[in-house]
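Readers of this paper often ask what the protein records in our data store actually look like. Such a record has a labelled line for the sequence and another for the backbone structure tokens. Nothing more is needed to write down the fold, since each code stands for a local backbone conformation. The remainder of this section carries one protein's record, kept here as part of the documentation.
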Amino acid sequence: MENGTGIYKTLTRPSVEILFKDRKSKFFGYAFPIQTEEEVKPIVEELRKKHASANHVCYAWQLGIDNPRFRANDDGEPNNSAGMPIYGQIQSFGVTNLLVAVVRIFGGTKLGVGGLIQAYRAAAEMALDSSDIEERTVVENFQLDFSYSEMSKVMRMIKQHPIEIESQKMEMDCCFIISVPKSRSDIIFEYFNELPSISIRKI
């Protein structure tokens, strides 16, 4: 998470499938990078198809940086025995914008609530351990509108500061979508805003 540093951690790609076993029950763990809550349901449904004999597909997700949102789902397991232990590992690893799911195939022996908590926690931890996690800079996006004659001013500013061009349209009237580190966004906004021939707005 950001923790005032302008940095957060997330996954670069989905994890490999991991397997944790306890008294013949199988717990398959997965971690997926996501950007929206709408991505969760299709992933969970795909896991149900992949493991047609599964008794439960439990999961937790978190989205956002400054004020993150999360949800934990026990999918029929005893209350707080699956989703919250999974979410606890998301918090432990300090990652966001991800879904962690654990698929359980019952092995014939009941594990009890304590055993379930331990198993779901272990599978989630193994999935995150096997993931590629990277640090990213918290950024803000702006739209710049300006005439082509102002291009040299704009490009000089972009080269002098940590500004990335996300998209650009260059005609008589130009439009750039730029991203800047959140820690520098106020300074860069003010610089462009003071130039009467250049329009900047946050998007």
Q: What stands out?
A: Residues 139-202 form a domain with the Alpha-Beta Plaits fold (CATH 3.30.70.240). The radius of gyration is 22 Å.
